[in-house]
Write a structure and sequence with these properties.
Elements: H1 3-19, H2 23-28, E1 35-36, E2 57-63, E3 70-73, E4 76-84, E5 90-91, E6 101-110, E7 113-117, E8 123-128
Parallel strand pairs: 1-5
Antiparallel strand pairs: 2-6, 3-4, 4-8, 6-7, 7-8
């Protein structure tokens, strides 16, 4: 590695340490979280806009009766790909046990990555699904 590249790598690493940003934060596309906890609105189900903007958290209600594997966001289906165990992205009390709905936020990180965050849970990262989800058993 050339000396200028070595210096760049060292400076980048030092910058990450000083900023408190972890590798997981960068992989998720997050650097300074903490959204307020939310509850399901009595006025209606929240699934974000049909054409979401990148890096904008949208209120999102996830139906969990059949588990957390699929999400419909931005006009298409997504499937769970990765669970990031790290610093919580949403502050507040987690949802009551045995609930069938999680009120949180969905954030489009890139064209093929979306993150769901809710209080008391790790970040769930979704990728585009190749098909619609099957019905649950």
């Amino acid at each position: 590695m050339k000396p200028s590249r070595q210096a760049a790598v060292l400076l980048l690493g030092a910058g990450l340490l000083l900023s408190g940003c972890s590798y997981e934060d960068l992989a998720r596309g997050e650097s300074n979280p903490t959204l307020p906890a939310r509850t399901v609105d009595a006025d209606g189900w929240r699934q974000g806009p049909k054409h979401p903007k990148e890096h904008t958290p949208y209120p999102y209600d996830m139906y969990t009766h059949c588990g957390i594997k699929w999400a419909h966001f931005g006009g298409r289906w997504w499937v769970l790909d990765t669970v990031f165990n790290g610093a919580p992205q949403v502050e507040g009390e987690p949802a009551a046990p045995h609930t069938q709905t999680l009120a949180g936020y969905m954030t489009l990180i890139g064209p093929d990555t979306a993150n769901f965050d809710t209080a008391g849970m790790p970040t769930l990262q979704f990728v585009p699904a190749e098909s619609k989800p099957p019905g649950c058993a």
